[in-house]
Amino acid sequence: MELLSYRGLKETDIETIVDLLNRMHYLSITSAIEEVTIAFRQRHKGRLPDAIIAATAIQHQLELLTLDAALAKKLTAWNGRVNDL
Predict the structure, then answer these.
(1) Are 27 and 60 in contact (CB under 8 A)?
(2) Where is the PIN domain (predicted)?
(3) What stretch of H or E contains 32?
(4) pLDDT in tens, 24-75
């Protein structure tokens, strides 16, 4: 949704983005992801979309690639705690 909402996208840009998105594997938001999302936001504050993304990565034990240094720092701290459980 976010990728396709930028203003000024050319038709070729849209086609490229849609092609890429069609090749991706989608993960649903489960109740476990909801619980981690809530806990993540309570601990770190921040935006709900970032918390959902972080919680999904945590629950599926995925590496999150991001340019958001603040989110990366929060996720690193959270992963350390999750590994201690």
Answers:
(1) yes
(2) 8-73
(3) helix 31-44
(4) 999 999 999 999 999 999 998 889 999 998 999 899 988 887 778 888 888 8
Judge whether 71 and 44 are in contact, CB under 8 Å: no
User: Taking the domains of the chain in order of start, what are their residue ranges?
Assistant: 3-84
CA atoms within 13 A on the CB side of 70: 6
Q: How many CA atoms lie within 13 A of 61 on its CB side?
A: 2
Cα 28 from chain centre: 12
Closest CA to 37 of 85, 81, 78: 78
The tokens describing 23, both together, are 């090749």
pTM as predicted: 0.73
